[in-house]
């Protein structure tokens, strides 16, 4: 607030002549020359002098004005430190006029305070060919606070997408004032669009696999089985059995591929799940032969129970596949560990350190009959929950998979 603003404030109560005199006296007391520009800090000091040198209503006005100036100074500091473009507007017939902008606004849209203050906001931000009326209505789409996506032209001439948050408040004398912040979400929107296209392609892929490939495979498998029932020639039967085994392997690959595609999505509704219960249920769904399971925890976890069970099933199959039909599997939780989680360990040959990162890659398998998707599915389920998974050596000398969060 400059000298003119200070005089006008006091003139509301004591008249222009007296207001000019008390402001000039305070300026003289502070040793401020007539040529010096008065900033907000100087204005606060002037109000202090006026309050000290006067009584009654003049002192009260000086005190209230100083409080307002101090609040405005704090607000200006806050505005200046906001990393996103921010603007303060006043309204005339609901038309937003710029009262102040921060440095980020100037950098993004190419206007400094001198160019921006007093201008209609729509003249500064409207993209070429766009209806500038939308910038006016941005502030009135909702009462109170508003949040919406908008497209605005930057200093470089590029039109980018912003999340515009605004609020309109009533200031002194029933004047409306608006505060708006523009958060650039252009890159995020592009990523969302890319993800949408990827998911559409994934859905198309799943459809092809589940229908266009599975149906003819079922036909081929069924015809092979019919031939096996009728053919007595030993050599022909051996050949047909190899064909049937190949069909079964193809069916497993299709199942794992579909599971992997679906497990890559974000988890649905989660709940507090007993690790012991899910681990035991998963064991019942796996051909465990003579393997044994030991569950050494009663802990719970916030998870999608169905997908967590799929994780356990795949790790059990992996253990039996590599550690043998009589292997031992142990489910436990870490003790004295900074992170929460659980582990699945076996007493098999383990996984060499150089291979421990490779085992999660799609299609990687050391077993000729394996599909190479089991552990990839495990990793997808883990990541969908926001967890992590790592491989190490178990206390029994086999492999241990540590799931942490």
From TrEMBL:
Keyword Magnesium: no
Top-tier EC class: transferase
UniProt keyword annotations, A-Z: Kinase, Phosphoprotein, Transferase, Two-component regulatory system
Gene Ontology molecular function terms on file: phosphorelay sensor kinase activity
SUPFAM superfamilies the record matches: ATPase domain of HSP90 chaperone/DNA topoisomerase II/histidine kinase (SSF55874), Homodimeric domain of signal transducing histidine kinase (SSF47384), PYP-like sensor domain (PAS domain) (SSF55785)
Pfam families reported in the protein's UniProt record: HATPase_c, HisKA
Histidine kinase domain sequence ranges: 208-405
Every PAC domain range: 146-197
Entry keyword Oxidoreductase: no
Gene3D superfamilies: 1.10.287.130, Histidine kinase-like ATPase, C-terminal domain, PAS domain
InterPro entries per UniProt: HATPase_C_sf (IPR036890), HATPase_dom (IPR003594), His_kinase_dom (IPR005467), HisK_dim/P_dom (IPR003661), HisK_dim/P_sf (IPR036097), PAS (IPR000014), PAS-assoc_C (IPR000700), PAS-like_dom_sf (IPR035965)
E.C. no: 2.7.13.3
Reaction catalysed by this enzyme: ATP + protein L-histidine = ADP + protein N-phospho-L-histidine
Name of the molecule in the record: histidine kinase
Organism: Haloarcula rubripromontorii
């Amino acid at each position: 607030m400059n000298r003119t603003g200070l005089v006008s404030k006091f003139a509301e109560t004591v008249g222009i002549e007296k207001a000019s005199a008390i402001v000039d006296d305070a300026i003289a007391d502070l040793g401020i020359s007539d040529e010096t520009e008065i900033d907000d800090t100087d204005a606060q000091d002037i109000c202090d002098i006026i309050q000290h040198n006067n009584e009654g209503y003049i002192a009260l006005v000086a005190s209230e004005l100083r409080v307002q100036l101090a609040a405005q100074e704090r607000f200006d500091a806050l505005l200046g430190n906001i990393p996103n473009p921010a603007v303060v507007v006043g309204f005339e017939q609901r038309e937003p006029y710029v009262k102040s902008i921060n440095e980020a606004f100037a950098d993004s849209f190419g206007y400094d305070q001198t160019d921006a203050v007093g201008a209609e906001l729509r003249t500064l931000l409207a993209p070429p060919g766009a209806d500038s009326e939308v910038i006016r209505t941005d502030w009135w789409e909702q009462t109170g606070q508003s949040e919406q996506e908008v497209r605005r032209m930057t200093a470089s001439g590029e039109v980018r997408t912003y999340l515009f948050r605004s609020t309109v408040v009533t200031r002194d004398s029933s004047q409306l004032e608006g505060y708006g912040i523009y958060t650039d979400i252009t890159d995020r929107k592009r990523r969302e669009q890319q993800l949408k296209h990827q998911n559409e392609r994934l859905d198309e892929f799943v459809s092809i696999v589940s229908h266009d490939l599975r149906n003819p495979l079922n036909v081929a498998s069924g015809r092979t089985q019919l031939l096996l029932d009728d053919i007595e020639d030993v050599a022909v039967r051996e050949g047909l059995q190899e064909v049937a085994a190949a069909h079964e392997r193809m069916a497993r690959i299709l199942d794992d591929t579909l599971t992997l595609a679906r497990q890559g999505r974000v988890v649905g509704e989660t709940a507090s799940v007993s690790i012991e219960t899910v681990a035991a249920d998963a064991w019942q769904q796996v051909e465990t032969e003579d393997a044994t399971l030991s569950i050494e925890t009663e802990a719970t976890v916030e998870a999608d129970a169905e997908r967590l069970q799929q994780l356990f099933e795949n790790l059990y199959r992996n253990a039996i596949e590599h550690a043998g039909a009589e292997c031992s599997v142990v489910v436990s939780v870490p003790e004295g560990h900074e992170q929460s989680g659980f582990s699945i360990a076996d007493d098999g040959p383990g996984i060499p350190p150089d291979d421990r990162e490779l085992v999660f890659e799609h299609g990687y398998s050391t077993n000729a009959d394996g599909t190479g998707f089991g552990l990839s599915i495990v990793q997808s389920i883990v990541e969908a929950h926001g967890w992590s998974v790592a491989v190490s050596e178990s206390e029994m000398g086999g492999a241990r998979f540590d799931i942490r969060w």
